[in-house]
Predict the structure.
Amino acid sequence: MKLCVRVSKGDDDAMASGLALGGFGVSYLSGRDRRQYVWAPSLALAVTTPLLLLGITRSTINDAIWLILAGHFTLFVYFTPTLALAQNMVGASMRASCGPSACFRSSIIWAAGHFLMAARQLERDLDQHHEVASPPGLAEAP
């Protein structure tokens, strides 16, 4: 139970820190160069993917937690300015619906990408699982 509480607290801290750095940090950088509104979040997203992939493939829970928390932090560095930029691109009367629709679109694209990747591997994975799961000495009937 203590581990779950600590991970949850770390997750909240990573999210809050990523939100703050994504908001204030990108605003500061864009004051020097307006292109940073796009470059900084894209760099954060490029760092997020390897961190999360490394995190889910670690053999020890401690390594996995730290890498996933770092990935969560950089994900929110990406997410905050992206939503702010989307809301600044629409009129004031559309801002309340712009954020949720941007989240929904990115979630659909993310999910579609994962399903497409899984579809490419599914038959091979099922065949491999069937070979491993079959008891030794049992062969399929001809």
Remarks:
- Residues 92-133 form one domain.
- The longest helix spans residues 95-133.
- The chain is about 85% helix and 0% strand.
- Helices lie at 2-32, 36-56, 61-88, 95-133.
